[in-house]
């Protein structure tokens, strides 16, 4: 495995797997540029060292065929502005058209390939497709942590065609370094804050963290599966009944490991899932029939904020409520502020997961925490203790 900082890119074509899976509005304007912005240092490193950058990414979920709304051509304007040079584009990612275009590139130039997922071979991890992707390049850089948990052609298979010339980009380097810092050498007390809608995507995360943390805070919709498991009345709040037994197992395992598991004692309940619905503060364990919990309450906010203030290592994944609706954003906002304040006081904090990142960015606090992870699913799987295909392919 090579290192991007000391690799000689002069005269070489680097194919870089970036994560440009960004949201677009109906006019194809980018509404959140953070993933593109994060990749700029890696691209610039190649260009500064007189190499050529060939960029490949997916966007959205096309069905293996070209779709206008998922075309990467919509990103060239913004990308050109960020790099300070014209980004060329080719409307495919493999084939003669790509090879011909790549062969004409001069040192310091940038070429963006069309959406990888316009070909079914990408998600299938097809070897021939990966080989075709590799053909125009001399060196492979993986800088797409958000897809590192997928065994796709551009993340896990292509690396074999660059046995002596493969490396991580800066995003991948930083993600792995910060995740390892969190999991391998955390200062105590270590508090994990987990939210979001469902328990189902986070069971293994919780189980792996129980061996590492001192405290686990559970909020968001997932809290009601635990509250119901403990005999609470949750009205018509979101619940995964099939995971009630698993929730009880987790509660018991936490107790056995001397890990304190915190559930909100109060909640903001609403008459309906609507931003203008009638709402009121209520006991989390006694939500009225016909009402649903959409945020944590004031007592929970105070308790959790105090706990975070006393922590030296903090992991936050998932909002505390339906923060997209202003009436139910109070809990998420308070947690974001508490994490930022604890970081200012010397704690190490890592925030990850799409909704958590969106929340902390909207609140202008992204630069007030130690690290913001770009990969939700990949981050969770890494925390679960799994070896990510995209990481393994580079390290082999």
Can you walk me through this structure?
With 396 residues, the chain is an alpha/beta fold. It has two domains: 13-173, Phosphoglycerate kinase, N-terminal domain (Rossmann fold); 186-383, Rossmann fold, CATH 3.40.50. The protein has 15 helices and 17 strands. It has helices at 34-48, 76-83, 96-103, 120-124, 127-134, 153-157, 170-184, 203-209, 223-229, 244-256, 298-309, 330-344, 354-362, 376-383, 389-395, and strands spanning 13-17, 52-56, 87-90, 110-113, 139-142, 166-168, 190-194, 215-218, 233-234, 260-262, 266-270, 279-283, 286-287, 292-296, 313-317, 348-352, 371-372. It has a six-stranded parallel sheet with strand order 3-4-2-1-5-6, with helices on both faces. Strands 10-8-7-15-16-17 form a six-stranded parallel sheet, with helices on both faces. α6 links the parallel β5 (139-142) and β6 (166-168). α9 crosses α10 (244-256) and α11 runs parallel beside α12. The longest helix has 15 residues, at 34-48. The radius of gyration is 23 Å and the shape is elongated. The mean pLDDT is 94.
The gist of it:
The protein has 396 residues and is an alpha/beta fold. It contains 15 helices and 17 strands. The strands form 4 sheets. The chain has a 6-stranded parallel β-sheet with strand order 3-4-2-1-5-6, with helices on both faces. A 6-stranded parallel β-sheet has the order 10-8-7-15-16-17, with helices on both faces.
């Amino acid at each position: 495995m090579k290192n991007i900082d000391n690799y000689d890119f002069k005269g070489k074509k680097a194919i870089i797997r970036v994560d440009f899976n960004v949201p677009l509005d109906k006019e194809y304007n980018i509404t959140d540029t953070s993933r593109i912005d994060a990749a700029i240092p890696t691209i610039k490193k190649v260009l500064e060292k007189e190499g050529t950058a060939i960029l490949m990414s997916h966007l959205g979920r096309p069905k293996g065929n070209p779709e206008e709304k998922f075309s990467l051509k919509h990103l060239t304007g913004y990308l050109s502005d960020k790099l300070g040079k014209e980004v060329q584009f080719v409307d495919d990612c493999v084939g003669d058209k790509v090879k011909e275009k790549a062969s004409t590139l001069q040192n310091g130039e940038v070429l963006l390939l069309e959406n990888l997922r316009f070909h079914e071979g990408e998600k299938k991890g097809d070897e021939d497709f990966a080989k075709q992707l590799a053909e125009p390049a001399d060196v492979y850089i993986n800088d797409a942590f958000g897809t590192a948990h997928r065994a796709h052609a551009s993340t896990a298979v292509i690396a074999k065609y660059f046995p002596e010339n493969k490396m991580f980009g800066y995003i991948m380097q930083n993600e792995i370094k910060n995740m390892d810092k969190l999991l391998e050498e955390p200062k105590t007390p270590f508090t994990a804050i987990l939210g979001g809608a469902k328990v189902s995507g986070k069971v293994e995360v919780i189980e792996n963290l129980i061996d590492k943390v001192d405290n686990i805070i559970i909020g968001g919709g997932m809290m009601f599966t635990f509250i119901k498991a403990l005999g609470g009345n949750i009205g018509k709040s979101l619940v995964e009944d099939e995971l009630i037994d698993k929730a009880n197992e987790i509660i018991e395992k936490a107790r056995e490991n001397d890990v304190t598991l915190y559930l909100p004692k109060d909640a903001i309940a609403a008459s309906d899932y609507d931003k203008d619905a009638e709402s009121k503060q209520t006991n989390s364990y006694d939500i009225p029939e016909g009402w649903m919990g959409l945020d944590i309450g004031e007592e929970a906010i105070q308790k959790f904020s105090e706990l975070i203030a006393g922590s030296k290592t903090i992991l936050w994944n998932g909002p505390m409520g339906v923060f997209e609706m202003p009436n139910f954003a109070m809990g998420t906002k308070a947690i974001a502020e508490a994490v930022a304040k604890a970081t200012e006081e010397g704690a190490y904090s890592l925030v990850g997961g799409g909704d958590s990142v969106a929340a902390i960015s909207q609140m202008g606090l992204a630069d007030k925490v130690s690290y913001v992870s770009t990969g939700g699913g990949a981050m969770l799987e890494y925390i679960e203790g799994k070896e990510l295909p995209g990481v393994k392919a580079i390290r082999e």
